[in-house]
Amino acid sequence: MLLDYPLWLRATHFFNFLLLSLLVRSGLEILSAHPRLYWNDHCAPGSEWLKLTKKKRPDDRLWTASDEETSFPSGIALPGHENLGLGRHWHFLADFSWLLTGLIYVAMLFITPEWRRLIPTSWQIVPNAWHAMLSYLTFHVVETPGGYNALQQLSYAAIIFLLAPFSIATGIAMSPAVAARFPWYSKIFHGRQGARSLHFLALCTFIMFFIGHVTIVAVHGFRRELAMIVLGETHDPNLSRALTIWLGGLVGVVAIHVVVTIYSRRRPRLVQRATEAITDPLRGLLFGHEVSAQHYSSEDISPYFWVNGRPPTEESYMAMAHDQFANYNLTVSGLVHRPLSLTLADLRAMPKQIQITKHCCIQGWSGIAEWGGVSLHHIVGLCHPLSTVRYIVFYAFDNKSTSEPHAQGPGYFYGTIRLELTEDPQTILAYEMNGRPLPILHGAPLRLRVETQLGFTMVKYIRAIEFIEDYTSIGQGQGGWREDYQYFSQEAGI
To answer: Is the pLDDT score of 5 beyond 90?
Structure first.
């Protein structure tokens, strides 16, 4: 009979608690960017099944997806107060750490005899668990010396082998790279929004399990159970030492949360760079090289498509828009053998690419639309980049200092993508949306579409393109306006 709980089991239990607490808080920060949950990928206002904001969409003025963002306090969200970029950094860092902890736990579980304490080996466990639950509901404790009772065993096994993998699977289903390359996968969860809703419900289940788990520990005798959890001793435990170690660990967890929150608020660039150094290579390896295989039908087009950001207000842009962009001129320069100067007529004369694809915004909403334009790969073929080129910069007409003066940063909007993303046939420069000229609210006269990436990488209002080797000398050196001022990651496949 198994009597003691080994050190590796107790250590992974502690790290699991720490990492799950970080995942919950950073997950709430991500949710606050678009605090609506849907069961459909169109995300039309009013179709949500859960709304976690008191904001109401007005009918008399432009209301963008950015206006939906709600400020969650730092007491519950990491880091709180509308910091989506940093919330994602902490979420992915905790994600990878939690996955590593889980892999170590499962490996050790089956290497050692500990699996016998946790893994059910008979269907009799189901009626036994039912009777155990009835006993608890009637305020009777169910003791099983040296192990877990049937209800504990069944619930712990379900959390480890069902809920945890389910959370990972629904998280992956929200990746635009995965959804674009394997559209069938997201359909398993009723689309990206279904996966997002189920991911949120999984988070709620973890929280409910934690409350129930602590309650059961208290019912069985808090100090004795604490000694088993902390010291691994099931006979004659040192209760004072167990309580001291547990309090020390709890203080350590709280201290970690306080430190990462303070640093995120006071030193956001440091946190951005430190977390990216760990997570970006992993994200790029897993989600950075997919090719889109989306082919939706016209019946799938969303009746409502959120607007993100406000259009340029510069007089030069507004005059150009007034003339239907007849004087528009796109310059293509940088490390190329043949610089280009292209009008809208030039672009329209090139081979046209039409695609119906799903847009995945970093804030959480999605929408399906038909896009028409010219393949970026065709432009690459015309200008012949030098062999040293690694990135392409897209500069916009959008001066954030005037279009959104209350935004988190000044200057003209820009973004970069890796050169290899142009090899995807569905990476295009779009001048049409749903069979009509691209609307101003959605980026006229020209916008980028990179269907394996999050929406913020798809620069709107494009005025110039530059082929470069490195982006560290542009703007704040992070690879884009949102990366510079909102601390997003340049790696945007998930």
So the answer is: no
